[in-house]
Amino acid sequence: MNDMREVEVVVVGAGQAGLSSAYHLRRTGFEPERDFVVLDHSPAPGGAWQFRWPSLTYGKVHGMHALPGMELKGADPQRPSSEVIAEYFTAYERAFDLRVRRPVEVRAVREGSAGRLLVETSDGDWSTRALINATGTWDRPFWPRYPGQETFRGRQLHTARYPGPEAFAGLRVVVVGGGASGTQHLMELAPYAAATTWVTRREPVFREGPFTEDVGREAVALVEERVRQGLPPKSVVSVTGLPLSDAVRQAIADGVLDRRPMFDRITPEGVEWNDGRHVDADVILWATGFRAAIDHLAPLRLREPGGGIRVEGTRAVADPRVHLVGYGPSASTIGANRAGRAAVRDIRRLLTAEPVAA
Fold it and tell me: Is the distance from CB of 108 to CB of 68 less than 8 angstroms?
């Protein structure tokens, strides 16, 4: 028996980028289950937000932009963001009847027959004319490798598994990473931990002044240029610097955000530099970011020699049937909304184009 199912568009992922794309497909006349399908590997609505640590309350979330067509109103800033946004996404999926299929693992996307793509999943295969990949980065935490890492007798964990500050009470913690997560972890941990040490590869850059639209556009343009060149995308934060809030200023004054250069090796008891300095540690917390979760696209050979996928707008240059939403410059909530609309517009052009004569 052949259980192959055919649709015009498959959307992979139901976070902000996937739901935005599904909304715009619906709005322009595509029917869920008949014309498009949304596949999500998570157990419930909420995208990566459902896995965020409990102490990340909604009031601490920076730049959460509403999904298109439905505002998020009246949320309690003291509630965990994982709960608030999961409930919002649940209501959104119902309001627009998006019929997300979950949990479904997309294992591979490869060339199919008759110019279509074959999407192989844990719940059977799909044949599609176009694909919107909206898988984000949460499933690919980046762990750097350092000499002696396997000898450390304490605990090592990544931001993706951060349980909240109470779990580190009385412990000596080394936090690795100069991004927003690293600074947030340090400021949360300081009142609980016996000691904290902050190490980064580069000197952190703190940004004075408000994050204006002009600043945002410049940052996105820098990330977009890397993607156009086929290089792995950097985060927008990496090119904007860290916002210098009152809480950050206080943490600097208190010595909590006292950055040290990256250590050279890990020992059984802690970390060590070549100049002889050593810090004892019970925990190493790797706040070292994430990489794009795109391994399932490998059979299409979209990667450039530089390691990334070259993208124009949202369209993969190597295959116009594939759009990456929430990748590179659109890896923010407002960016994902705009990219979802742009991807659907391009896909409509692709699907309605007259065949080119041989």
Answer: no
Dihedral of alpha carbons 178, 179, 184, 189, sign: negative
The span from the CA of 78 to the CA of 96, in Å, is: 28
CA distances from 61 to 64, 75, 104 (A): 6, 12, 28
Which two structure tokens, joined as six digits, stand for 145? Answer: 């490798």
Structure-block tokens of residue 352:
């309605």
Contact 309, 324 (CB under 8 A): yes
pTM: 0.86
Place of tokens 């993706």: 160
Distance CA 211, CA 219 (A): 10
Q: Is the pLDDT of residue 223 over 70?
A: no
* Helix locations, the chain, DSSP H: 16-27, 81-95, 180-189, 213-228, 236-240, 246-253, 333-352
Exposure on the CB side of residue 349, measured as CA atoms within 13 A: 8
